[in-house]
Amino acid sequence: MGVIVVEVMPKPEILDPQGKAISTALPRLGFEGFTGVRQGKRFELTVDGEVTPEHLDAAAKAAESLLSNPIIEDVISVRELGGEA
């Protein structure tokens, strides 16, 4: 079973209220040194068998047309999940 990861982020010019809330909470919780936070979305698409170039192409098309709102979001990456957790 293969897994494809799609990462989507708000466009830089779009306000990110969730990221702002996290950014203001970090110092209150003792996490210093961060100057900003942007919150995005991560999707994991599972396929039977190995991930093929055709799967990656289909995932990229789905990312652009279904998993993201192209007016306010950018698709950052579409990749096969490797040995990471």
UniProtKB/TrEMBL annotation:
Family: Belongs to the PurS family.
EC number(s) given by UniProt: 6.3.5.3
Subunit structure: Part of the FGAM synthase complex composed of 1 PurL, 1 PurQ and 2 PurS subunits.
Gene Ontology MF annotations: ATP binding; phosphoribosylformylglycinamidine synthase activity
GO CC annotation terms, alphabetical: cytoplasm
InterPro entries on file: PurS, PurS-like_sf
Localization in the cell: Cytoplasm
Pathway: Purine metabolism; IMP biosynthesis via de novo pathway; 5-amino-1-(5-phospho-D-ribosyl)imidazole from N(2)-formyl-N(1)-(5-phospho-D-ribosyl)glycinamide: step 1/2
Primary role: Part of the phosphoribosylformylglycinamidine synthase complex involved in the purines biosynthetic pathway. Catalyzes the ATP-dependent conversion of formylglycinamide ribonucleotide (FGAR) and glutamine to yield formylglycinamidine ribonucleotide (FGAM) and glutamate. The FGAM synthase complex is composed of three subunits. PurQ produces an ammonia molecule by converting glutamine to glutamate. PurL transfers the ammonia molecule to FGAR to form FGAM in an ATP-dependent manner.
Catalytic activity: N(2)-formyl-N(1)-(5-phospho-beta-D-ribosyl)glycinamide + L-glutamine + ATP + H2O = 2-formamido-N(1)-(5-O-phospho-beta-D-ribosyl)acetamidine + L-glutamate + ADP + phosphate + H(+)
EC category name: ligase
Protein name, entry field: Phosphoribosylformylglycinamidine synthase subunit PurS
The encoding gene: purS
Keywords: ATP-binding, Cytoplasm, Ligase, Nucleotide-binding, Purine biosynthesis
Gene Ontology BP terms: 'de novo' IMP biosynthetic process
